[in-house]
Amino acid sequence: MFAQTFFIVWRESIEALLVIGILHTWLRHSSQNPRALRFLWAGVCAGIGAALILSFVLQSISNLLPPEGQDYFQMALILIAGILIVQMVFWMRQHGKTLKNQLENDLSDQLRSGRLWGIFGLALIAVMREGTETVLFLQGVFAATRGNSNTVAGGVILAILAATASYALLQLGGRFLSWKVFFRLTETMLLFLACALMVSAAGYLVSFGILPYTDPLWDSAALLDDTTRFGAVIAGMTGYRSMPDNVTLATWLVYWGAIASIFWLQGTRLNARERKA
User: Fold this and answer.
1) What stretches of 113-178 show up as alpha helix (H) in DSSP?
2) For position 274, what pLDDT does the model report?
C-alpha cells in the first residue's frame, strides 16, 4: 500500500509541478501585469481544493453504502483508476512534446485579451486534472489493498517531499535525470501498476461469483512469495501472483494484449502523420 501510494503521488506531483512551473515561468518573463501571478496561484489553490472535495465526496458515498454496495463501489473505483492510468500514459506520450507550447500559447491568448480569469481557469484545470487523477488512483489502490489511512497519509507526505526534490533535479537540465528518461521509466511503472489494479478488480469479480473460481495453475512461491513483505510490494506494483488461477492469467493476457495493441496503433498513426508531413 505504501509503495503504490508513494509512487502515484510522487509521479503526479512532479507532473503538476511541471505544469505550474511552465505557467509561472512564462508569466514571470512575459507579463507586465503583477496581478497575473496572483490569478495563477489562486487557480492552483482552487485546483487542489477541488481534488480534496472529490476525495471527500467519494469517501462519503462509500460510507453511505451497505457492505455489499461498498464492495461493488470499490471494484468500480479500482477499474476506473486502472483505465485512467492507461489513458494518462498514452495521453502524455502523444501530447507531452507539445505540452509546453500549448500552455504558453493559451496563456498568451488570455493575456492579449486581458482575461485574467482565463489564467485562473488554466491553472485550475491543469492542477485539478492532476489532483483528481491522484485522488481516483489512490482510492483505487486503497480499495485494492484495503490499506489504512495512516499508511496513505505517510506515503502522500513523503511523496510530495520527494517530488519537490526530484523536480529540482530534473530542472537542472538533464545533468542527473532528463525529463524524457523520467517519463519513459515512470510510464512503464504506471502500466504495471494499472495491471495490478486490473488483477485486483478481477479478484473482486471472482468473489462476487461473476467470474468462476479455479484452482491455481502453478506455484512460484519458491521464487517469489507474494505473501511476504517484499513479494506483496511487487504484487501490488505489478499484478504478480505466485499462485495465479485462470482468471488472473486471462487478465494478464487481455491487459498486456490491449496495451501492445494501443502501442501499435499509436505508432502506426504517428508514422502516417510523418509520411504526410
Assistant:
1) 116-145, 149-170
2) 65
